[in-house]
Write a structure and sequence with these properties.
By secondary structure, the protein is an alpha+beta fold. The protein contains two helices and six strands. The structure holds zinc ion.
Length: 114
């Protein structure tokens, strides 16, 4: 039920934002979900649509952007995409990798109807 608590916090954050900015309605909430965040997009979508009923967000679309895993080699400095969770530099084979992208879980932007 990891996704349910995430969906709840997204909804709470956006409702606060709507109040603060006096937004009449939000059409789309775009979120960025990293490959390492452990979030299943389908489960997040399902939880979201279940909890927005009866809130000012009923009818709002959740747009999930999946962020692939990106690493940087500490040995040769190469930036590369981590595929199939192989944590080694494709250039020098070093295992000294720093994960630079893929752990995020954030609201990217809100699309507001005018
Ligand atoms: Zn390298």
């Amino acid at each position: 039920m990891h996704e349910l608590s995430i969906a709840t916090s997204i909804v709470e954050t956006v409702l606060q934002e709507m109040q603060r900015r006096q937004l009449p309605a939000v059409e789309t909430i775009a979120v960025r979900v990293g490959a390492l965040s452990g979030v299943v997009p389908e489960a997040l979508e399902f939880s979201f649509s279940a909890i927005i009923n009866g809130t000012p967000l009923a009818g709002t679309r959740l747009a999930i952007e999946q962020v692939p895993l990106q690493g940087k080699c500490r040995n040769c400095g190469l930036d590369f995409s981590v595929v199939e969770f192989i944590f080694a530099c494709p250039h020098c084979r070093s295992g000294q990798i720093e994960i630079t992208k893929g752990e995020e879980l954030e609201i990217a932007y809100l699309e507001v109807s005018s």
